[in-house]
């Protein structure tokens, strides 16, 4: 059900409460076992927030958390089995129609109650609940040696904004501009744009923008790509986000589409290469390869069509962003390398201010708040992404000295032993999320890189997964759940954990996830989630609760080779 421990426990307890209300315990012949299971969940819930935090740096706690999650997943499986048995006995088909195999008593609307009329099945479920209770008893006793902090509670749910507050939120264009600060990026944009439009050589040339993750490489590349002089100079302009798990056919088809061509649905690499060459040959072209991790996309897929097309007309360029210093050299082309520098403190402060729900310079006028803010800035190391994420966190807090001091002195800054995939600035923001919002954030990492996370798609997904719970004890009306899920989505945008690319008045936002943020989310959910990409073999690990099959271009999944029980 969920990867976040202190969100999973309340969900399981709610399901168990439903079983108790349907008087299943009496029919199972295990009087008190379900109540005991509820009590176990309630007592364990007190220290789950601390366990969830400590699992990242303590291997023994991590193993304990894994066993507890397995037990909770088993509890949800038991309830699911009851519903499936009820459907089977009713004769419900896969499409929801009814083909009754057994007469259902009139007015029977309780599937759990109905399925327990099968004594063999009832005994099986009863035994499983007893065994589950024993496991939870043992885990509770084992937890004593960890001395968990029972006072370390989970963060509260974000509240639903009023219409007035919602009207103050930034538009997509304002979000896009909120990453642009200082004269340096403007100067770099002008210089690199000028470089691109002055070459008249038939030889392909490469501009390589190099820097660490979150340094602003993509932001600079986007500024250059959108420069008026660049847009007017190049007839064909293609932007490709390069994934680490490269699919040659997928990459070629994407390039053809972005170049304004039609691939015709073919998977023939030779034909696709010829089609891309033809599209690039129609005029001077600029190809952006964003976030390249190796030269494979170039040497294996793009080099031939680009070099062939370059012979048709002069002045073509490839613009690359990468963390690798020697990538352009390995591409075997003439190149110019540009290193992205960290932000200076004043530019970082300006960037932080642009994330806050205030009028320009409102914080600047508060001397002590600025002093605290500059101390926070220093912890961001000049990385624009870090400043944006921390600024997004601050934007959800009251703009007071006490609240900013709390962020400055948060324990996340000083946690030792975090894996390198877990940036402390992103961890700080993650720690501030409620359990339910953490689930929604981690779920976004299941979407393939460069895939837009559409509000209209992901909101019903979160609801169907059970991530969205009614607030304030209200009933779970669909409209209210959708409203809460929509607020969660916008909260992730506000915190700069997902980045809006478009906004539509009816269908809502479209967002992407920064690669550094994605790496964080993938690491946090790696034991519960598995993304299977087409043409790439993988092993289905025990404990996986989410399985996402990334199958581009309408391909169907033909088979899974089962190497063990799912």
From TrEMBL:
<keyword id="KW-0611">Plant defense</keyword>
<dbReference type="InterPro" id="IPR058922">
    <property type="entry name" value="WHD_DRP"/>
</dbReference>
<keyword id="KW-0677">Repeat</keyword>
<comment type="similarity">
    <text>Belongs to the disease resistance NB-LRR family.</text>
</comment>
<dbReference type="InterPro" id="IPR041118">
    <property type="entry name" value="Rx_N"/>
</dbReference>
<feature type="domain" description="Disease resistance protein winged helix">
    <location>
        <begin position="446"/>
        <end position="521"/>
    </location>
</feature>
<keyword id="KW-0175">Coiled coil</keyword>
<dbReference type="Pfam" id="PF23559">
    <property type="entry name" value="WHD_DRP"/>
</dbReference>
<dbReference type="GO" id="GO:0042742">
    <property type="term" value="P:defense response to bacterium"/>
</dbReference>
<dbReference type="Pfam" id="PF00931">
    <property type="entry name" value="NB-ARC"/>
</dbReference>
<dbReference type="GO" id="GO:0009626">
    <property type="term" value="P:plant-type hypersensitive response"/>
</dbReference>
<dbReference type="GO" id="GO:0002758">
    <property type="term" value="P:innate immune response-activating signaling pathway"/>
</dbReference>
<feature type="domain" description="Disease resistance N-terminal">
    <location>
        <begin position="16"/>
        <end position="95"/>
    </location>
</feature>
<feature type="domain" description="NB-ARC">
    <location>
        <begin position="187"/>
        <end position="354"/>
    </location>
</feature>
<feature type="coiled-coil region">
    <location>
        <begin position="122"/>
        <end position="149"/>
    </location>
</feature>
<dbReference type="Pfam" id="PF18052">
    <property type="entry name" value="Rx_N"/>
</dbReference>
<keyword id="KW-0547">Nucleotide-binding</keyword>
<dbReference type="InterPro" id="IPR038005">
    <property type="entry name" value="RX-like_CC"/>
</dbReference>
<dbReference type="InterPro" id="IPR002182">
    <property type="entry name" value="NB-ARC"/>
</dbReference>
<keyword id="KW-0433">Leucine-rich repeat</keyword>
<dbReference type="InterPro" id="IPR036388">
    <property type="entry name" value="WH-like_DNA-bd_sf"/>
</dbReference>
<dbReference type="InterPro" id="IPR044974">
    <property type="entry name" value="Disease_R_plants"/>
</dbReference>
<protein>
    <recommendedName>
        <fullName>Disease resistance protein RGA3</fullName>
    </recommendedName>
</protein>
<dbReference type="GO" id="GO:0043531">
    <property type="term" value="F:ADP binding"/>
</dbReference>
<dbReference type="InterPro" id="IPR027417">
    <property type="entry name" value="P-loop_NTPase"/>
</dbReference>
<dbReference type="InterPro" id="IPR042197">
    <property type="entry name" value="Apaf_helical"/>
</dbReference>
């Amino acid at each position: 059900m969920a990867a976040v421990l202190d969100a999973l426990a309340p969900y399981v307890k709610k399901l168990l409460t439903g079983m108790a209300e349907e008087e299943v315990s009496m029919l199972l012949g295990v009087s008190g076992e379900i109540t005991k299971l509820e009590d176990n969940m309630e007592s364990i819930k007190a220290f789950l927030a601390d366990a969830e935090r400590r699992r990242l740096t303590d291997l023994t706690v991590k193993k304990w958390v894994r066993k507890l999650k397995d037990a909770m997943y088993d509890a949800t499986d038991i309830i699911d089995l009851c519903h499936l048995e009820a459907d089977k006995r009713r004769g419900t088909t896969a499409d929801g129609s009814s083909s009754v195999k057994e007469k259902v008593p009139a007015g029977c609307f309780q599937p759990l109650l109905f399925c327990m009329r099968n004594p063999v099945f009832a005994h099986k479920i009863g035994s499983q609940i007893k065994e589950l209770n024993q496991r939870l008893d043992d885990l509770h006793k084992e937890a004593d040696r960890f001395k968990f902090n029972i006072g370390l509670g989970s963060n509260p749910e974000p509240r639903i904004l009023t219409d007035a507050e919602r009207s103050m939120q930034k538009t997509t264009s304002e979000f896009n501009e909120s990453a642009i600060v200082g004269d340096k990026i403007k100067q770099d944009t002008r210089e690199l744009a000028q470089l691109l439009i002055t070459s008249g050589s038939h030889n392909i040339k490469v501009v390589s923008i190099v820097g660490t993750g979150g340094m602003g490489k993509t932001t600079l590349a986007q500024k250059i790509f959108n420069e008026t002089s660049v847009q007017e100079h190049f007839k064909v302009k293609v932007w490709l986000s390069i994934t680490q798990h490269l699919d040659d056919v997928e990459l070629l088809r994407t390039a053809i589409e972005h170049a304004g061509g039609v691939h015709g649905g073919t998977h023939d690499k030779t034909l696709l290469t010829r089609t891309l060459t033809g599209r690039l040959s129609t005029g001077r072209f600029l190809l952006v390869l964003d976030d390249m991790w190796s030269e494979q996309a170039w040497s294996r897929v793009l080099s031939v069509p680009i070099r062939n097309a370059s012979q048709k007309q002069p002045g073509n360029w490839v613009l690359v962003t990468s963390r690798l210093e020697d990538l352009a050299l390995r591409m075997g082309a003439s190149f110019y390398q540009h290193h992205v520098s960290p932000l200076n403190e004043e530019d970082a402060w300006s960037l932080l201010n642009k994330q806050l729900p205030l009028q320009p310079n409102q914080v600047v006028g508060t001397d002590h708040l600025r002093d605290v803010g500059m101390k926070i800035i220093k912890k961001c190391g000049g990385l624009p992404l870090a400043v944006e994420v921390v600024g997004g966190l601050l934007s959800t807090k009251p703009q007071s000295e006490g609240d900013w001091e709390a962020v400055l002195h948060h324990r996340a800054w000083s946690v030792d032993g975090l894996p390198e995939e877990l940036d402390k600035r992103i961890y700080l923001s993650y720690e501030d999320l409620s359990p339910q919002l953490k689930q929604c954030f981690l779920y976004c990492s299941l979407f393939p890189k460069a895939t837009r996370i559409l509000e209209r798609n992901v909101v019903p997904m979160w609801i169907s997964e059970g991530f969205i719970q009614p607030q304030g004890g209200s009933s779970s009306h669909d409209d209210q759940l959708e409203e809460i899920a929509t607020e969660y989505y916008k909260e992730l945008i506000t915190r700069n954990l997902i980045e809006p690319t478009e906004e539509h008045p009816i269908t809502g936002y479209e967002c992407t996830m920064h690669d550094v943020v994605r790496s964080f989310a993938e690491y946090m959910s790696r034991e519960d989630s598995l993304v299977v990409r087409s043409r790439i073999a993988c092993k289905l690990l025990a404990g996986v609760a989410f399985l996402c099959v990334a199958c581009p271009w309408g391909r169907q999944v033909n088979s899974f080779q089962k190497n063990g029980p799912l």
